[in-house]
Structures are given as structure tokens and as C-alpha cells.
Amino acid sequence: MKLLASIGKAFVPQKIRPHLRSYLLKAGVSSSPYTFFGVLFFIALGLAGIFYAIISPYIQPENPLLQFILVFVVFTGLAFFFVAMVIGIMYFYLDTQVFIRTRRIEEILPEYLQLVSTNVKSGLSFEYALWYAIKPKFGVLSLEMHFVLKKVMTGYELADALEDFASKYDSPIIRRSFHLLIGEIESGGKIGYIIDSVVKNLKNNQKMKAEMAASAVTYIIFIGAIVIIISPVLFALSYNLLSFITAFVTKIAASGAASSGGPFQISAGSLDLGEFRIFSFSAVIVVSLLSSMIVSIIEKGTIRAGLKYIPIFTISSVISYILFTIILTALFSGIQV
Predict the structure, then answer these.
(1) Which of 29, 100, 113, 333 is most buried, most CB within 10 Å of its CB?
(2) Final residue of a structural domain among 101, 132, 154
């Protein structure tokens, strides 16, 4: 494990390590990633070796020096490609986790601050009010506030610790809420009144978002109907019509209906129904992916918030396409050409 960690650490520049650590903490990853990077290095080498073995018969120059250069370039390029691909997948996953954690904090923040306000009104100082408001039900926010108050216990100023937390996540709601609290702490005003005002604004904001999402239900249903029903039906119908027309033209061409001396020639053509089937299948998947992104933007305002729609739309549209193709094929099979 130490060897893997040393290898992985060698691929991360010294200047990037603090930023990488901060980014992983935002995604909820507290362990060191260097061992993973070391494993990734050997996996990339293995995959590069497998793919090079597949393509090596096509790389056989007569010059030994040229062959060595080609082997080095191709093998290195494959290794970097697989490393970049895995890193890209991991970055997408971590970025999604950061977004999910941010949304969870935004959703639970009003309830947490409401409890803090109750503690302040009962006579506790703001610092202790934050501490006694930490409950397991607050999840990510409890962990973050626990970390903030630990920093305060080690000598950090409360305002600085809250500022670090507010700037940690890319959320205007979190930043504005805690900046108001920090300003009230520094001015020595009535913190309980400010907390109540922040809670009220946060709840109004959540209510407005819920109303906007509810008003977009009609558009979501319309897009869902297009993706799950209309699009698969049209592609399945196109496939069967194309199959029928191809069979009809082929029969006319085979029977010699068009004389060789006439002005018109009818031939069977070279259209491959298998290629159209692959095209329609791919088109259904692409339409479902793009539609799920559109629905995510309409309902949540961002694509990352609606990633759950991608498998739902994709699987449903593919199943509908297969079912409609089977049904329409059975119906068209009864038509005599």
C-alpha cells in the first residue's frame, strides 16, 4: 500500500495537493487518494498493454528504430488515454457528490438555524447554540458544523471559521446566510433576530423553488410523453414501413414488372434494415439523454440536480421502442405484399 501511495503521490504536483485535498473534503472524501492514483497507474498500464496487443499486428514497420518509436508512442498514448478517462469519470462523480452535499446543506439549513435560534433565546451563547444544535438528522451540515466548532476550540475565531465554511461550497444561499450572521457577530447585535430573519428568507426561498418546480410539471409530462411513447412509436413505425416498402420494391423488381426497354427502372436497392435499426436505437437513446437534461434544467435549474432522470428516461424509452417494434412487426406481418 505504501508503494502504491508513493507512486500515486509522485503524479500529483506539490502545488495541486492542497487544492485536491480541499476538493475531496467538499465531496466527503477524507482519506488520502494517493493509493487510488497508484492503483490507477497500474490499471492504465494493464489496459494499455491489452489494447496494444490487439493493435500490434497492424504496427509492423520494417525499420527496428521506427518500430520502437511507434511502440513507445502508442503504448504511452494508450496509458495516458485510460488514465484521463478514469480521472474524468472520477471527477464527474466527485463533482456530482459536491453538488449533492451542497443541496443537502441548503435544504436542512433553515431547520438547523431555527434550532440555533431557539438555543440562543434560551440563554446560550451563539457558539454553544451552534454546538447544541448539532443533531444526526442534519447529516452533512452536522459534520461541517462539528468541524467548524473544533477549529474554534483550537484557537480559531468563530467568525473566521464560519467564513471558511461559507466559502467552502459554491452556494450563494450558504454564503449570504452566514455572511449575515458573521456581520452580526462582529457588530455585537441581536444575533437571535438575524437568525430568525435568515430562517424566514430561506424558507420563503425553498417555497418559491417548490412552486416553480410544480409549475413546470406540465412541461415535464409533455417531454416525458415524447421520450417514452411518441419517439419510440415513430421510430418503430418507420422501421416497419421501411421494411414493408423494401419488401414491396424487391418483389416488383424480382417479378420483372418493369421492362428493360421502358423509361423507368425499378431495383431492390441497397438499403440495410439492420443499419436503420441501429440508427433508430441510437437515436432513441440520444433523444432520451438530451430530454432528461432539459427536464433537469426546467425543474431544478441545473443538469446535475436531475441526473436521476437519465436512467429513467433512457431505460423506459429503450423498452418502449423494443415493445412497439415487436407489436408493429406483428401487425405488419399480416399484410400481404
Answers:
(1) 113
(2) 101
Distances (CA, A) of 126 to 54, 141, 175, 192: 66, 17, 18, 9
Task: For residue 314, give its domain range.
Answer: 216-332
Mean pLDDT of 49-61: 73
Rounded CA separation 12/20 (Å) = 9
Predicted confidence at residue 259, as pLDDT, reads: 47
Contact 243, 332 (CB under 8 A): yes
Residue written as cell 487544492? 19
SS3 27: coil
Give 190-199 pLDDT, tens digit per residue. Answer: 788 888 888 8
Give yes or no: residues 200 and 221 share one domain: no
What's the pLDDT at 289?
Answer: 86
Q: Are residues 119 and 92 in the same domain?
A: no
In a domain, 337, yes or no: no
7: CB partners within 8 A, 6+ apart = 37, 38, 41
Return the number of other C-beta atoms located less than 10 Å from residue 142's C-beta.
16
More reliable by pLDDT, 32 or 234: 234
Cα distance between residue 26 and residue 95, in whole Å: 9
Q: What is the pTM of this model?
A: 0.67
pLDDT of 264 > 70? The answer is no
As for how many domains the chain has, the answer is 3
pLDDT at 254: 64
